[in-house]
Amino acid sequence: MKTNVVSVNFGAGREYPYLNDKFDLAVGDKVYVDGKLAGTPGTVTEVLTKFKVSLKYYKYVLQKIDYTVRGKFCTMDHYYITAQNDALPFEQLSAWVTAPEPVDEDEEEEQFLYGDGYDIALDELEEPEEGAVPETEPAAFWHGKDYEENGRLKFVTVIGGKGMRVLQTEKNVTTVEFDLDAENRRMINVYCDCIRPRLCADMTAVAYALRRVFDRGAAAAGDDFTLIERRLFRRVIESSEHMVIF
Ligand SMILES: [Zn+2]
Questions:
Q1: What pLDDT, on a 0 to 100 scale, did the predictor assign at position 64?
Q2: How far is the CA of 59 from the centre of ligand 1 (A)?
């Protein structure tokens, strides 16, 4: 797309111009930018197509924060859920919870190496005997249940029946990715990007949430669906200027 310059307001009298070459931006859109204000959401106040600027001084818009919510959401315990193939994409949900890292040209981009993934049966989460699931962190099931019940799991989204990903926050944000075998109530190829190498509480928290979805009949095998923690959902609804629920 054609590069433009957008003026972004961060509140408290802070308004600066940024280059934008990735997003279709209009006045009122919320964005994350690179530079000193990385991590602070700002609002676009102007879009300029006539400009000449120095790349030495101008930073880029890194992400558009899209608060548009589509679909019919129902409450389910401490979540809102939309099913019937109205799932929201991971990238959109991710921007609600975490800002992209500022670009550091001297630093290498973070890369991940994958070994084998874990396999978690949703009906075998209760107090597995020690050593029953190899390579499991002590108390991973107990802690995961606690995370899930206490709203630390911020969202889960499943698109295409598998390739499903999740995000969770405490002090930091962790992403769990997995395939879903909903027919057999199993998560397969489960990976977490947290620092602990074993089957961890982040993964089991997702398993508890998925079991809740299926036990409640909130989604069926083969459905796309998105589960959003209640407080996060309300915050998004308050930020949304053009919410569409139908
Ligand atoms: Zn983890």
A1: 94
A2: 33
**DSSP string for 41-110:** -EEEEEEE-S----TTTPPBEEEEE-----S--EEETTEEEE-TT-PPPHHHHHHHH-PPPPP-TTSPPP
Distance between Cα 124 and ligand 1 center (Å): 19
Cα 105 to middle of ligand 1, angstroms: 28
55: which residues sit within 8 A by CB, 6+ positions away?
19
Q: Which of 25-39, 47-61, 84-98 has the lowest mean pLDDT?
A: 84-98
Question: What's the mean per-residue pLDDT of the chain?
Answer: 87
Q: How many residues in total does the chain contain?
A: 246
pTM for the structure as a whole: 0.84
Question: Ligand 1 centre from 198 Cα, in Å?
Answer: 8
